[in-house]
Queue: 4 jobs
Job 1
Amino acid sequence: MPGLHEGQPALPRAAVRVSRPQPVQSVGPVATEAQAGSRTLSEHARRALNFVLALLGLVLALPLLLLVAILIKLTSRGPVMYTQVRVGLDRRADGDLNTNHRRVSDIGGKPFNIYKFRTMRTDAEQGTGAVWAQAHDPRVTWIGRYLRQYRIDELPQLINVLKGEMNIVGPRPERPMIFAELRKNITEYPLRQRAKPGITGLAQINHHYDRCLDDVRKKVRYDLEYIEKQSLLEDLRIMFQTVPVILFRRGGW
């Protein structure tokens, strides 16, 4: 994914359309209520699935998490965990204008702290600031390379899922600085915030690490495709397809 593994404006106003009241029809309001009810039920079901899977995953992975924490501490100086501000869901996608107009600074979505195992040196950003990660980044520690290869560094994000800040499946969240830069070059980039960010996603199982802006554009297309057809079944399909991606080290985060 673009940006460091460690350490926007809002959607254009034209993208938010408030429909005018329509003449009352016999089936119109009923259909609208039915659609809204179906969507709410689907969201509740997906939230329940994400919470249960995240909780189960943390419990089962606890021995591995403890082992990784020890190895990080023994092989490099610095903290075991790494937190970083990322851009989350933009609720204006749901027409929640009242919430968003109170923002002092609109970065494109609700900011939150993402959790990761530290895989880079603590001085990784000194002298450079925020830059894109590379497939063979020299700033990555010895143990960090293995953690990245098998996506183990992402496991702490199950905590973000429990907190409701992320889903297991969704567009990867980006840093505010890099988000602001990418939206200047990719018009559709802010539309990714119409879905809650995820640990894995359609882009991650179908594309490699970003090497240029064209790679980011391809991933954005995958993200928007996911948003168009997101559902409980689609999430399960992507979760299952993530397993071979991790085992055979394909795709990219």
Job 2
Amino acid sequence: MSAVIKTRSLNKDLAAKAQSATRSLLARCAADNRWLETALPVNGPARAKAAVWAHDEAAPTTWEATTPAGAYAVLLLLDEARLSLRSDDHALEERTCHAGSYYVSRPGETVTVHTAGPCRALHVAVPVQLFWASDDASHACFSMGPAHDALLLQLARTLLEMHGDCREHALAAQIMELFVDRLRHLRAAAAPRACATRKTVLPQWRMQRVDDYVKEHLADHITLNDMAAAAGLSPMHFAAQFRAATGYRPHHYLLLCRMEHAKQLMAEMPRSMLDIALDVGFHTQAHFTTVFKRLTGKTPSQWRGDLLQAQGV
């Protein structure tokens, strides 16, 4: 019986220590409101580096970065958050994402994350030689997600609990090795689909031409033929490659671009909803309101009201 009591007491002490370390780490993150770089060594010359980002304000914020040439970057949500994500290979419209949602960007990829409110995430930079075996690293390069993994989330939370005590440094390094090993397992599962998709995906330079065309003609009537012509492809091939590259149909992507520009207009200048609707390519305010609510969950007036409230206006 005494052994059981001692074990329970030890578990309580460890839990209290982990909770205290986590509170201390999150307090520092919230105070600085920026990425906190903390190197966590693993076996061998290469190291994975972890960082925690906490944005506790109700106002939206945007984070953008380009993954270094010699590493993969992992962004893992620690709590539920409402956000949108855009990268060279993927686009995630604004939505509520659960804790454990992640995105792995390939070397050299630019990623932009926009959060509509509070958000807390773990960022891990994993050197290519840890992510791939040396004989594969030269030719296997693709991003992963957005997806969800409960084991990555559990390892991330355990890593945070261990971070506050230097005596737990060796254990934290082991947890990081498990984290990277889990990523390699997820990579192996995603590799066949990524290799098959890569052959038919829209090249980045064609995607850029489409994006430039759409943004320049948002107020005009844009058809599938117009977007395909901008990419230099037939409508059928363009639609298939575009969806493989972005996960969206071209028309859906066009609507997302119109909504993003509408948000920018609502935030920058006091104009009527009808004027904004016309400027982003809608013939009526009613149609604009319907599409805006379907894609964002709010009417344009509600969205602008929330923005003004967050700005204290």
Job 3
Amino acid sequence: MKAFKIIVLIAFVFISIASSAVFIGEKIGTDRTIPQITLEQDMIEVSLKATDEELLKGVTAYDEKDKDLTDRIIIESISGFTEKGVSKITYAVCDSDNNVAKASRMIKFKGYESPKFQVVDNLCFSLYEHIDIREMILAHDSLEGNITSKIIVTAEKYSTSVPGAYSLEVSVTNLKGDNSTITLPLIVEDRPLSVPTIELNEYLVYTAKGQTVDFDSYIVDAYDTMENSLRNQVTVESNVDFNQPGTYNVHYYVTDSNDLRGHSVLTVIVGE
């Protein structure tokens, strides 16, 4: 019995030594080094429609065991804006032993502009008209393109059945978190539907501080209910100060032979 116990003990010791040897061998054979990602620059400038090739420019990866891992780098994420037009981009790479390395830098989108609005029709109405304001206002973003579906329109004390000059607050935010908000006029008048029409090619214009706008150039035509042109009879009223950033409204008027007056409005946004 004693001899049997000694044999069992020896077998147990042998198995333990063998298991330890296998474990140590596995440890020695496993790569525990972390790959290294190298960035040539802390910030790069990229186009608005940047490709992966642009975003990965100047990024390399190396591992002691696998050597060059540059072709295995992926773009893990691109953040919202940390400031206008600037995001944080994070890269990741994995070696053959599933060791992962990450690195980040900043990217600046060249030529980026905040979302801008477009007004496609006159915001001056007769109270006898049916209007849908949302069909008249569009929004475009230099990164996402058309973001009209994200527009939010709010108005206080507004009624289509009560004549008056109202203000609309129009806001939109893109995926990067950049918000644009403007104030547009909404003018409801107690006038017949047969008044002359003044058609403009734009109803919202952006301009830089100090840069003037030729208001007359926005008139496409003016005509009465008989399609007679009244283009040369249109008058313009404006208080725009091109040296002072802000939102202004330019009013166009024309009167036909029946003494009926048409009215259109152009909003001018003077930037910084």
Job 4
Amino acid sequence: MSVREKDDPVLFQRIQEQNLLRQYDLLSNCVEIGLKKGIEAFDKYTLWALNYAAVSNIAQFGGRFREEPVYVGDHIPPHFKEVPHLMDQFFSFIHESWTLDGIGDHPTWLAGYALWRLNWIHPFVEGNGRTARAACYYLISLKQNKILTGKRIVPERIREDRKPYYAALRAADRAWDEGHLDLSIMADYLEGLLYGQLTEE
């Protein structure tokens, strides 16, 4: 069962908003588990669950990696046959870099990597941005080693003003196209959002 946006835009929007609230609740549970078990708790099953929550009743293939091509503006994501391997590499990179000097000890670098890389791979048919932002916040929370306070969490702040978000994604894409992994702009951007969350009254 699913609702199509074209058939009923108002209902579609309401379901999307309710899904987002459910995803944030689930994300809180995932963070709690991650704080107890460590970074190895961050795996494909976590992402599948977060994606399913984000797209329930609006996409029928939520919670599983795509098996068809998708197109995102000017970006053509990798062939769907590459997705499982790319996602294995994605998790391996995060797990192995978690304690690396200069990367693992930065508060938002790996979160920035997750946000960019998931958007680049686009592993799901629907809800990739929402899932990437949830994964990003998961990693920020684990780096802070606590459930974070604040009225508006980082994913909400990204949604409120997407221009710097898109600019940071494009900067990481350009570096990757040139053969470099440079998340400095994304990491700085997220650090500013995190500071805003933690200091806003």
